[in-house]
Amino acid sequence: MQQQNMNTQNQPMMYQQPPQVITTKDSLYLTDMLSWNLIAMKKAHFYAEHCQIPQLKAEFEKCGQMHQRHYEQILTHLNQQNQPQLGMQ
Fold this sequence. Notes:
Strand content: under 5%
Radius of gyration: 19 Å
Order of helices and strands: HH
Number of strands: 0
Shape: elongated
Number of helices: 2
Structural class: mainly alpha
Distance between the termini: 40 Å
Largest sheet: none
């Protein structure tokens, strides 16, 4: 059994930058992450619309906003990866 991507304390290495190539497995996981965040955002928005208790309504709205930020952050990272590098043609 090979020990790849392990540092001296047998822990996975942490990358400072995302890899330039996204594997099929990575792509499928990113798609899942986008779906999970979108569904959670929609559910929180639905619950906030139908909630009668102001404190709960506010919490559902905060939760929905958090999932929307996560969704947008993932998209931003993916769009940056798909942008052609300037000067490298």
